[in-house]
Predict the 3D structure of the following.
Amino acid sequence: MDFKGEKMKAKTLYLILILLVLVAAIITLILLSRKDPLNGPESIAFDEVGNRFLISNTLGKSIIALSLDEQYSPFLDEGLEEPRGIIIHSGKLYVADKTAIKIVDPEKAVIIDTLKIPGAVMLNDLAFTKTGIIYTTDTGGDCVYVIDPMANKIQKLTSPLLKKPNGIVYDMPRDQMFVVCFKEKSPILSVSTLDNRISIFKDTIYDYLDGIAIDDLGRIYITSWGQDMIFEIPQEQNRYLPTYKNITDAADIFYYLPANQLIVPLFSDNQIIRLQLE
C-alpha cells in the first residue's frame, strides 16, 4: 500500500476543506455587510457637525447614520426602546422614545440625559419653538405634551380633535404647531404656541397621516398611509396637490434645505428615498 500517497491525499483534502470554510466565511461577511441596516425607519434629522443624516430605527431600537453619499453606519444601539421622532436642537439630538425624551450627544453618540414624561403612552414626533419649548405628540395617549426643559415643567394638552396625533412641525412665522393624526380623514390641526389653543387649520379627505414638513417657501408636505402618497399645500394654501403618488408607508419626512429635497423614510420597505423639489 502506498502510505505516502494516501497521506498526501488526506492532507490535500484537509487543505481543500479549510479553503472552503474560509470562502464560506468571507461570503457570509460580505452578505452581512450588504444587509440593509434599517428596520422600521421613522424619522430623520441632519447632524451638521458630522455632516450626516440620523435615522430613528424604531423596530431595530437604534439610530442609524447615513452619509451624504448614502452609506449607512451604526450610531446608537443602546438605551432605546422605541425611538420615533428625532430632532437636533442647540447641538443635541432629542429622541421621542416611547414614554420619555432621550437627549443624545451627537459627537459621542451617547445618551446624556432623559426627560421622563409621566403618563405618556407612545411618544411619536417632536418639534421645538424658537424659545426652546418642546412639543411632542403622544399617539397612544391622544394628547400633546408641552415641555419647558429649563423650568422643568410639563403640560398635557387634550382635545376631542387629538385622535392619534402623529406628525408635528413648527410654523414659526405664525407661532403655531401643525399636527396631523393617524386616522381617517385627518384634519391638519393648529396648536398655538402662544396660548396652546387647538383648532383645525384645514380639513382634508386624506387618511392616516404620519409626517409633515415645511420647505423654505412655506409649502407644506404631508404623508398619507391611506392614499400611499405625499400631498402638498402650496404657498397660496388654497388647495391640495397629490405631488408624490405610490409612496407606501412614508413616515416623518424631513426637509433638507441645502439640496431642496424631502428625505423620506419608508417604514415598511426599510428604505430612505430623496425627492427633489422644484
